[in-house]
Prior knowledge:
With 295 residues, the chain is an alpha/beta fold. It contains 11 helices and 10 strands.
Amino acid sequence: MASIVVLADIHGNLSALEAVRADLAQLAPDQVIVAGDVINRGPQSRECLQAVRATGWTVLFGNHEEYILKLADGSLPTPDDDEDWWLPAKRIADELSAEELAYLAALPREHSIALPGLPTIRVLHGSLRALNDGIGFWMSDADLRDAVGAAPEAIVVGAHTHRPYSRHIDGHWALNCGAVGFPFNGNPAAQYLLLESGNGAWTADFRAVPYDRAPVLAAWERTDILQRSVIARIFRLEMETASPHLNRYDRFCAQRGLTPGDPASFERYLADSAQFAPRRAGDHQSPSHPAADQR
């Protein structure tokens, strides 16, 4: 029997990564694929990158790796961007060495797994359409066909949306592995996907590993980034609530004529209890361009 693990969206959360590594030590899978977004959002990006590289796992390119590279080469922020929004990511870009940046730039965009007698699997960060186009429950049949239907592989595993997902359509099996460091499904546990073979097919086990979040919260507090950057405070809130807040906060500000990034607007957002109500299936908006889920 073969076993494949797909994990993604670690986002600088070393405690979550260590919890998953401990779980994998018990499972001993044949392959582990990291489907992008090792870095950014959380406070321990370099530590997570170094830890992942030390494992020898297959690592893929995600949109947050792309952000860091663009910040490092000066193509972000654009003239229309508020530079303070990019402050947490800019710090990561400045912290990483030239060798580490080159490593990120060389990461593959996808990985295929073809084992005798089993359906072939394609793993990527987003979907066939784009790096930041995640597979998820809000997709219509037409959207999902467009996202996975052109793959020659029978199984397509993506990430990016921070939510586990499984659906069969037109002979394809679309899966989302969920997020290790920043789940958005209300469950704060570190989440990933285990695929196991049997009788010529794969079965999916969506795993969720509880862990102590105190060390990653303490890592944030050891810096001044929470005092300087509203977006860093939003990232912390996302981890604490296991829910997406970045786009919600943007919409909150737009609806009320508030300035995004202003600490006072964020305090108003926190005071509005409606922002923490359970999310409806149709509420998610997948970003259409690289700046969208940073802003």
